[in-house]
Amino acid sequence: MDFSLDEQQTMVRDMVRSFAEQRLRPGAAARDRSGEFPHELFAEMGELGLLGMMVPEAYGGAGMDLLSYLIAVEELARVDAAVAVGMTVTNSVCCWPIMTFGSEALKAELLPQLASGERLGGFMLTEPDAGSDAASLRTRYRDEGDHWRLDGAKAWITNGGVGRFFVCLATVDPALGTRGISAFVLDADQDGVVFDPPEEKMGLRSSTTCMVTLDGARVAKTAMLGAEGQGFRIALATLDHSRLGIAAQSVGIATAALEESLRYARDRKQFGKPIIEHQAIAFALADMDVEIEAARGLMWRAAWAASQPGRHSRESAAAKLFASEMCNRVASRAIQIHGGYGFSSEYPVERYFRDARVVTIYEGTSEVQRLVIARALAEHAKAL
Ligand SMILES: Cc1cc2nc3c(=O)[nH]c(=O)nc-3n(C[C@H](O)[C@H](O)[C@H](O)COP(=O)(O)OP(=O)(O)OC[C@H]3O[C@@H](n4cnc5c(N)ncnc54)[C@H](O)[C@@H]3O)c2cc1C
Description:
Helices cover 52% and strands 14% of the residues. By secondary structure, it is an alpha+beta fold. α3 packs antiparallel against α4.
């Protein structure tokens, strides 16, 4: 078993780390305060090939492997988790399903625009009354001859108002359950798509998250992913893939929290010595380090499972569950190590703590990840 990074993965890590330090770090705290979406940074990430990392080169992407992508997400999140989430959403819940389930014509039209950063992407699954129970979605589609028509409301849409192409799930008839659901690529630049102003959030404040109303939104006949009725399966496969990006985001935030804690514990003196020399603090740091390594290990193993034939739902759910809960424990410990200063926005651990809070919620809550794992275990139990 070889855990070393290959030449391309090392190059990606170094390049993204340098970009994050030079371009993201200086304005990260100010963006957190203002909530302003950094259009220019996304344009730069497009030029660096970070917005279509796994898109084949033939469609204008960087043609990289999943592990390279996860390394890039981790490096971005280590500095600015709000930028990291916008990047993951374009890559893994927009480009990936288009790449995997789109027609040749759709891929040729949309992927170069997304991969270059000319347009950002997103994913519209959640609705005001359909969150964890995504199969109960109510957004309707109907065939209007030369196009599909979509009507309904979607909630919590990342890159809302700043993105152009959204993978959108809708049902032809809620009575059909999951069999009625199809997946479309919606062009948001039309009168039938109306985004509300961005939500005021606890963390990830410079990432936009919006409610959106679809009122007679038109989708080209060629813009359905897969066949009619396959939408729910496509959404689940997409989430199996994209949850690893949230695991990487979690590992990135936790790494930042550990690094800040190490610096602080090295410099802060109490009772005549640096607090890092007090065993309680040293042990807390040791636990943080081990937990981060454990999460990264689960994530890398799940990335390997994703490259093998068959589903990898259990592995992705386990990586996302552990990494996101670990991230919250580590971010909370970082505040404790900073004492009162950790409670002040003057120190970055306060931002990491707020940014960490959502990773156990989006792309499936921790409870939903446990349901996925428990279902796999129930299957396993039958064979025992
Ligand atoms: C910042 C942010 C960005 C987001 N971006 C997107 C996006 O781009 N696209 C998109 O489609 N969605 C997005 N979401 C939505 C997100 O995926 C949902 O919030 C999430 O799936 C949970 O749904 P909910 O909020 O409706 O909570 P609910 O489903 O109402 O859950 C409430 C609580 O009940 C628990 N619960 C529910 N069902 C069960 C059960 N069967 N067993 C045990 N516990 C259960 C949940 O775990 C949770 O603790 C985003 C959310 C946020 C906060």
